[in-house]
Amino acid sequence: MKKYLYVGLGLLAVGLGALGVVVPGLPTTPFLLLASWLFYRSSPRLQQWLLASWLGKYIRGYQRRGGMTATQKAGAVGVMTVMVLLSTFVFIPAGSVARIIVPVAGAVGALTVIFLVPNAKDDEL
């Protein structure tokens, strides 16, 4: 039973991680690291699938370097900023409460990347 719970949670984490690639404020790597751990405990086949997929580069890079480089952090924060601004001022109608929620979520995501994700040196690639 525990195996199926881990597989289900792992698949959910993969979905959230994939969504985090395009949704501002939603992190990618932490969800993928969680999915990898859950698959390690329940299904080595799914773990290998995840590591071999296009999402696996996030996990392998994080594991290899032990964090994100300053360049990667700047890129992530830059993409999040563009997506938050685009979402807030182009796609969300004026007067909507989402015009407050999206920038706040984006700021939380950016601060998480900047301050909570471990730093790795650029030359450790």
Structure explained in plain terms:
The chain is mostly helical and 125 residues long. It has one domain (2-124). Helix content is 74%, strand content 3%. The chain is built from six helices and two strands. The chain has helices at 2-20, 29-42, 44-52, 56-65, 70-91, 98-116; strands at 68-69, 119-120. The protein has a two-stranded parallel sheet with strand order 1-2. The protein starts with a helix and ends in a 5-residue tail after the last strand. The mean pLDDT is 86.
Number of strands: 2
- How many strands, which pairing sense, and closed or not: the largest β-sheet? 2 strands, parallel
Mean residue pLDDT = 86
Q: What general form does the structure show? A: globular
As residue ranges, the low-confidence spans are none
C-alpha end-to-end distance: 40 Å
Total number of helices: 6
Oligomer: single chain
Any idea how many domains?
Answer: 1
H/E series = HHHHEHHE
Radius of gyration: 16 Å
Helix share bin: over 70%
Strand order of the largest sheet: 1-2
Helix/strand/pairing category:
mainly alpha
Strand content: under 5%
Quick description:
The protein is mostly helical and 125 residues long.
Topology summary:
Blueprint lengths: L1 H19 L8 H14 L1 H9 L3 H10 L2 E2 H22 L6 H19 L2 E2 L5
Helix pairs in contact: 1-2, 2-3, 2-4, 3-4, 5-6
